[in-house]
Amino acid sequence: MKYLTHAAFAALLTTTSAFAHDYKAGNLSIVHPMAFETAQSANVAGGYMTIENSGETTDRLLEVRVPNIRRVELHLSETDANGVARMTKQDGIEIPAGETVTLQPGGLHMMFMGLNGDPFEEGEKIDATLVFESAGEVDVVFNVEARSAADHGTAEHSGH
């Protein structure tokens, strides 16, 4: 398509701005914090984002704080040679100098624990504070997004 109508262009801008959001803290860029909607009965949900370190020293994500959520843990999911998936709690996530670390389903991610009957719903905004070793505290917002059919196969512990 060569030309966009005003309505199509406005829709494109709205869609882009709804999903793309990032934050800066020193040499770190936190790109698109998000979580998927959860089932009504879910007690946990996964959190994802990309963290870029443009600096010359490694930083470390130590903690994530979310009001009204009992606990948030940093996790790593791995699948062994036999196809058995294991998830291990991490004491922190290193963000090496000059590198990008992606928190995503099936790898490094965070777990929002203790939803207790208050599921994440599409369009919801989850206020959080990321705590880094060097960059300090960064307030971010996790957008809750719909899960596509392709995402259902990579659900961490979202109750799907």
Approximate shape: globular
Oligomer: single chain
Give the number of helices. 1
CATH architecture classification: Sandwich
The proportion of residues in beta strands is: over 45%
**Text of the CATH class:** Mainly Beta
Count up the domains.
1
Our Rg estimate from Cα atoms comes to: 17 Å
Question: What's the pLDDT, averaged over the residues?
Answer: 85
Low-confidence stretches: 1-19, 152-160
Characterization of this structure:
Helix content is 9%, strand content 48%. By secondary structure, the chain is mostly beta strands. It has one domain (23-154): Immunoglobulin-like (Sandwich). Strands 1, 2, 3, 4, 5, 6, 7, 8, 9, 10 and 11 form an eleven-stranded mixed sheet that branches. The radius of gyration is 17 Å and the shape is globular. Mean pLDDT is 85; it is low at 1-19 and 152-160.
